[in-house]
Amino acid sequence: MNTAACSLAMQSSYEEEFIGFEIYIEPNPDRWREGFVWLICKDVEEIDSGLDFSLGEAILCAKKAFDKAGNSAF
Questions:
Q1: Secondary structure element (H or E) that encloses residue 40, with its range
Q2: pLDDT at 12
Q3: Dihedral in degrees, nearest 10, Cα atoms 38, 41, 46, 47
């Protein structure tokens, strides 16, 4: 495993507007658990959140949260 690439991935964050909501993903502040925390926000209010092992999984899970709720909970 390339530790330089791993270190870079853990320092990066991600933001996207998705169906009028903001998705924020950043490294988990708990270094023992690692992974990425994702948040779905609307007008500065947190709607949903989760924790996933990789950045890619966090992006997919955040977007799937819309599908599971049928967008009605948002």
A1: strand 36-42
A2: 77
A3: -90
